[in-house]
Amino acid sequence: MRLFDPRDRETTGQTARVYAIFEVLHTAVDFLAAGLFIVGSVLFFSEATKTAGTWCFLLGSICFALKPTIRLTRELRLASLRRVDRLAEKAPEAPRDLFSERRR
Fold it and tell me: Which end of the chain is more exposed for a tag (fewer CB within 10 A), N or C?
């Protein structure tokens, strides 16, 4: 199990949902960071709004710092789901037909 390796992807309904949720979150943070930097840049043109612009830059920077955190959290969550699925497959009391679809 390697993090960030697209070859190590077993797609199930649950992993697809987790992946999609984290991609939407990552994209939203991207837009928020970009918006904050644009607003901060505009606010920096006036002395009266420089402090607000500085706050926008700080918040935008925090958003940019969140992006790798979101990706790492996604990968750890997916790795956890795969680990649980593998353990469930090995359980002697697991119904065999539950996992036979994925092996096809």
Answer: C
